[in-house]
Prior knowledge:
Oligomer: single chain
Radius of gyration: 44 Å
Largest sheet: 5 strands, mixed
Amino acid sequence: MDAALAAAVLCCMVFASFVDPHGGPDGTPTFGTRSPGVIGVVLMVLGAAALVVRRRAPMTVLAATAAVTLAELVTGEPRAPVAMSAVIALYTVAASTDRPTTWRVGLATITVLTGSAMLAGPLPWYAQENLGIFAWTGMAAAAGDAVRSRRAFVDAIRERAERAERTREEEARRRVAEERLRIARDLHDVVAHHIALVNVQAGVAAHVMDKRPDQAKEALAHVREASRSALGELRATVGLLRQSGDPEAPTEPAPGLGCLEDLVATFRNAGLPVEVACAERATGLPAAVDLAAYRIIQEALTNVRKHAGADARAEVSVILVGPNIEVTVLDNGPGTEDGRPGAGQPVPDSGGHGLLGMRERVAAVGGSCTAGPRYGGGFRVHAILPVQAHATAGRATHTGDAG
């Protein structure tokens, strides 16, 4: 392309060298009334040849074309349009460098070429050809700077679009990972809780089947109720996963502290004595905090039933302390909730994710969770969930919607 451009520029210079701007009787341009000299032809060829490497070495090409143009302006008579090669070279410099460099190089080129033509050339300083050199070099610098700015603008838009696309993909992956983690936590809580109750009640039914059939029937009824609840929650979760569009609004509210008595009753029916102390103001909480508190109590009591022993007792307390709600679950069993041994117990093979799920739920609402053995035996789960921050965020959201 550069070679083709150089050939085209050479043709234009040779053609223009046969034009006399003032050859007509009334001062109009005429063609063929003059012809370029040998020096003019050589300088035109040299200037056009330098343009072949204009994009590889723009400054060098500008210096070379300015030199041959300067020689033509000072010695040429009649003058050949060698300045056309310098105009193309100046445009290339302006389009490939920054704006300060364009201003410095452009002003230097315009000053040297125009000043030499006016002061050292054979034509009067006010001649139209001298003013034409000033105009063409100035337009070349301005056009090159405009092209460079346009390219930079397009590149910035393209880079911003690519960055936005990467950000959208990363955000989509992050949301998918968070949703998978949330579903895994919910499935773990549902399955672990109900299957643990089914296991306990089935064991009771098998133990008393022969001697106390009425108690066995009651245990089997609890098994049926727990399995029905587990199937219902699993069906709802799987139904949400199978929907291709936006899920419909649930027909039942999400579990929360308002269902705490029903939750505790299932454990009491399974043979785990549970005492509950819940503040009256611990209702009407933000949905995320309410669900997190419910799931923490559910998982902690499930672990008590599974690991704390047959004679264990549990205590649940839910209190409001300043801007937070504190949930505590205690037991007096010799075992521990995460499967680690108590005093004199062997290490069980436990690969559960109960404590990890509780900590993730608490972290999701901006709280903190601690769990560990109690002094003298048993285990303690303590979670602090912020309430006022979520309530403030909810009010701000509604205010923005109203606006």
